[in-house]
Amino acid sequence: MIPAPLLxxxxxxxxxxxxxxxxxxxxxxxxxxxxxxWLVPGAASLALFAWLLTLVDTSQAGRxxxxxxxxxxTSALVWLWLAEGVRPDRWDLAGAALCLIGAAVILLAxxxx
Length: 113
Known about the structure:
single chain; 113 residues; mainly alpha; 74% helix; UPF0060; EmrE-like; cell membrane; Small multidrug resistance family-3 protein
């Protein structure tokens, strides 16, 4: 059985990929002149993203979304580097580290029910 923190990390990483890919499809259509059919896989990817977030092991949606924010920011910087060819600088990396620390505090801290 996969430990809950690893499963949550995998869900968040998958959700980030789905969200970034979906948003990029819209960006490519509007800003890069790609054909309108790019919106179809983009919308499907965004629906997958929303479904994936429901798999996070927390009883509050807002907490799942808040913690996801740190993962999204980090993933967006990876996308910047791998898909757009722009290497994140030290300020990007420092900001992402702060966000991931914040995400861990939000998701893993003992909360009252």
